[in-house]
């Protein structure tokens, strides 16, 4: 299995091959990647022990639906607005998010248009 971003796929879950985490592609084409490995912005960051399959916080990357080919636009979660916003940078992640915050982000992007 190769490491790839899900593009033009039906709604699905995908387990991360190299790090603890997963991604979800929703029916509207939005994708969220949730990671909590020792190299991610989470409670396990810089953990000298073997990769933990559990964490109190996680790093999230949000991708808008593919419109003009790869690469897709990266978005981020703005907690003050309780909304996801487009990022001018080519890559962006939100770190140290709780399970409730991740669930809220999934709810927000699930209501976005394709």
Describe the structure.
The chain has 114 residues and is mainly beta. It has one domain. The protein contains one helix and seven strands. Strands 1, 2, 3, 4, 5, 6 and 7 form a seven-stranded antiparallel beta sheet that branches. Strand 1 and strand 2 form a beta hairpin. The longest helix is centred in the last third of the chain and has 12 residues. It is globular and about 40 Å long.
What's this entry about, in short?
With 114 residues, the chain is mainly beta. Helices cover 11% and strands 29% of the residues.
Average per-residue pLDDT, rounded, comes to 88
Shape: globular
The major pleated sheet works out as: 7 strands, antiparallel
**How many strands in all?**
7
Write the element-wise H/E pattern from the N-terminal end onward: EEEEEEEH
Structural domains: how many? 1
Rounded radius of gyration (Å): 14 Å
Q: What topology does this entry show?
A:
Elements: E1 12-15, E2 21-25, E3 31-35, E4 58-63, E5 74-78, E6 83-86, E7 94-97, H1 99-110
List keywords for this structure.
114 residues; mainly beta; seven-stranded antiparallel beta sheet; 7 strands; 11% helix; globular
């Amino acid at each position: 299995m190769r490491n790839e971003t899900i593009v033009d796929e039906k709604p699905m879950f995908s387990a991360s091959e190299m790090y603890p985490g997963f991604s979800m592609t929703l029916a509207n084409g939005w994708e969220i990647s949730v990671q909590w490995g020792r190299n991610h912005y989470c409670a396990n960051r810089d953990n000298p022990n073997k990769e933990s399959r559990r964490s109190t916080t996680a790093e999230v990357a949000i991708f808008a639906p593919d419109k003009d080919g790869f690469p897709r636009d990266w978005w981020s979660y703005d907690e003050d607005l309780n909304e996801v916003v487009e990022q001018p940078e080519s890559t962006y992640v939100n770190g140290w998010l709780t399970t409730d915050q991740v669930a809220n982000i999934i709810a927000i992007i699930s209501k976005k248009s394709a």
